Amino acid sequence: MGEKDYIRSLRPGRDRVRYYHLTEGKRVVEFLIQYEALIEGKWRAVVRYDSAHGDPHKDILHPDGSQSKEYFPGWSNAHVLTYGQEDIGKRWREYRRAYVREMRG
């Protein structure tokens, strides 16, 4: 089994990506990639791709504690992990703006 777990800064002290994956051979059996933003002095999970509950999916987390889910039927964990990395890498600023906008109502 191979395991990788780290946090990568996007903007030091303001935005980061939490990354985790567990492999068996070449197969990704568990993963998490999560964009987190420091807003009003607190680290907040904003968007997450993971394999929890058996199906790879995306969660958009809202300030009120609710979540919007998107599933990827037929996709492997490895494909959703890669897609999530690319999506967060391209859109983290947009996700942050939307989260802050929701906070301010």
Q: Could you characterize what this model shows?
A:
A 6-stranded antiparallel beta sheet has the order 1-2-3-4-5-6. The chain has 1 helix and 6 strands. The protein has one domain. It is of the alpha+beta class and 105 residues long.
DSSP summary: helix tally:
1
Strand content: over 45%
Which residues sit in consecutive blocks of at least 5 with pLDDT less than 50?
A: none
Biggest sheet descriptor: 6 strands, antiparallel
Mean pLDDT: 96
Major sheet strand order: 1-2-3-4-5-6
Distance between the termini: 45 Å
In helices, the fraction of residues equals 25-40%
| Helix/strand class | alpha+beta
Morphology = globular
* Overall domain count: 1
As a whole number of angstroms, the C-alpha radius of gyration is 14 Å
Helices and strands, in N-to-C order?
Answer: EEEEEEH
- The count of strands amounts to 6
Q: What's the gist of this structure?
A:
The chain has 105 residues and is of the alpha+beta class. It is 27% helix and 50% strand.
What labels describe this entry?
alpha+beta, globular, 105 residues, single chain
Please outline the helices and strands:
Layout: E1 2-11, E2 15-24, E3 27-39, E4 42-50, E5 57-61, E6 67-71, H1 77-104
